[in-house]
Amino acid sequence: MAYKVGIERQQTILFPERVEDYIGPENPVRIFDAFVNGLDMFQCGFNRAAPSAEGRPPYDPRDLLKLYIYGYCNAVRSSRRLEKEAKRNLELMWLLNKLTPDFRTIADFRKDNRKALKEVFREFNRLCDTLHLYTKDYIAIDGSKFKAVNAKDRNFTQNKLDDRLKRIDCHITEYLLMLDTEDKEEGDPRQFSPKEIEEKVKGLRERKELYESYQQEMEKTGKKQLSLTDRESKLMKVADGGFNVCYNVQTAVDAGSHLVADFVVTDHPADSGLLETVATGMKEAFSLPIIETVADKGYPDKTDMMNCLEAGIIPHVFPAKGSDGFELETEYEEREIDEAQRNSIEVGDIKECLRAGVIPAVYSEVITKAEVVEKKLYARDDTAEREAAVQGDAQTPEEDGQVEKALEGYFIRDLTKDVVYCPGGALLRAKSAKKNGEVRYCNKLACTNCKRRCTKSKYKEVDFKSGDTQIACAAYGQDGKEKAVKNRTGVKLRKTKKVVRLHFKVDRKKLDNRKCLSEHPFGTVKRALDSGYLLLKGTEKVTGELSLTFMAYNFKRAVSLLGAGRLLGALTKA
Description:
single chain, seven-stranded antiparallel sheet, 18 strands
C-alpha cells in the first residue's frame, strides 16, 4: 500500500485558493481581528491613530496590535520572532493581509504605546463584563516576581558596596606592599612587574571611585538599591529561595470567572501593604461601591486593612493561628451618624461611620465590635540629638572614636549617617522599622569570615530603640535576646488619644478558596505563555508589556468559558 501523496510543488493551479479558506470559521484569529477592529484607537491613546497627510504611509496601529495579541497568545513575544512569523505564518498572513513589518517597527510600537496597551486590556475586560463573565462576588489578590532586564551583578545595595570597597582596599594594600618589596629586594620573576602592579592599582582605584559614586547617588536619592540597567527594578527574594532583580506584579482575579480583572506593577519586595492599591484599581475599573478581597499570609498590615475598610474594600486576610480576625484601629472623630448615613454604601459615609465608632450596615457581618478607647502612646524622641549631630561639626567615625569603641565589644550607632559599627569592624545599615518603633540594622555579608558570636542570627543583625546609640556585644546571649543596653539618650514621652478599635472577622470559606483562584493565572502566563521574564525596562513599559500578557490569558480564558463561536458572535454583533 502506498503512502498519501500531496500536491506537486510544480503543479499550476488554474484558480488559486484564497487565504480566507485556510482560516476556519471559529479560528481565534477571527476574534482578534473583530475585537481590534471595534476599538476606538483615539480613545485608547495610540500613536498615529490617524494617518498623516504627508510623508511615507505608516503601518496601521490596528495591524500591529493584532500582531502582538496573536504573538502573546501563542507565546511569541520577541519582535524579531514576530517579524519571522509574519512572513511564514498563514494565520498572520490572513490577520495582517500579508503585511510584513520589520522587527524595529514592531518593537517601537510596543514601547511607544505602553499606556494605550493597558487601556486595551481594560477594554477587553469591559467586553467580558458585558457578556456577564465577571461575577464580582469577590476577588483574590496575589503577587508574583517577574524577572527584570537587569542582571544581579548590575544591582547594588549599600552593604554590597561596603563589602566591595573593603575588598578593593585590601587588594590595593597588598599590591602596594608587593611594590614596596619589589623596590627593596630583587624581584621574583614569577611576580608582577612594577608596571603591572601600578596598572592593577590604577584599575582598582578607578573601580573604587565608581563604587563610591554609586554610594553617593544612593545617599542623595535615599534609595537602598541601585540597578544600572533597569533603574526601577529591585533585588527581591524569589520562589526558589534565591534572589533576583525583579518586579513584584500584583493581580486581582475574579472569583467566578478566574479572569484577571486588574494588575499593578510594583517595586515592593514584599506583598504587605499593597491590598488597598490593587483593590482600588479593580473597584474603579468596574465602578463597584463595595468589593471583597481575599489574600494570603503575606498581606496582613493593619494600617492597610483599615484603609481598605474606609475605602469600601473588605479585606479577608489569613489571621494568626487561633484567631478569627484582626483588631484594627482608626482615628476617632466625634460626630452624629444618622440612620441614612449608616445604611449608605458611599465611601465618604462609610469612612465617617467608622471614625465615629459606628458599624456601617454593609459591614455588619464582618465587623463584630466597634468601641472608642483611650490609647496610650509611648515614644522616644531623638530628633533633637539627630539635628544637633547633623548641624554640628561633622567628624569621621575614626575622629570621634566610634569605630574604636565598637572594636571594644559594642554595637555603635551613628545617628548622622544612620549606620551601626559592629565589634567585628563591619558596617550595618538600616534594614527595616519594626512595629514597636525599633530600627533593625543588618549586614548579610559581615559574618562570612567573622568568628565572633555577636548575634543569634546567621548574619549580623541588631535592633536599636529610638535614641539608643550603644549596645554592648555581651548584651546578646545564647538566646539572642537583649540583656543590657547602655546610653539610652532618648526622652520618653507619654500621650493619650482616642481611637476607634474594631474587631474584623474574616470569611474562612472564601479564604480557603483563594489558592484555587490566584495561583494558576501566574502559572499559565509564566509557563504556557512563556512570560516569566520581561523584555522592557521601567514600570510604565513593563505595565504595557504585561497588559498584553494578561490580555492573552483573559482571551484564552474567555474562549474556554464561552466558546470561540459565541465570543466571535458577540463581537460581530457589537
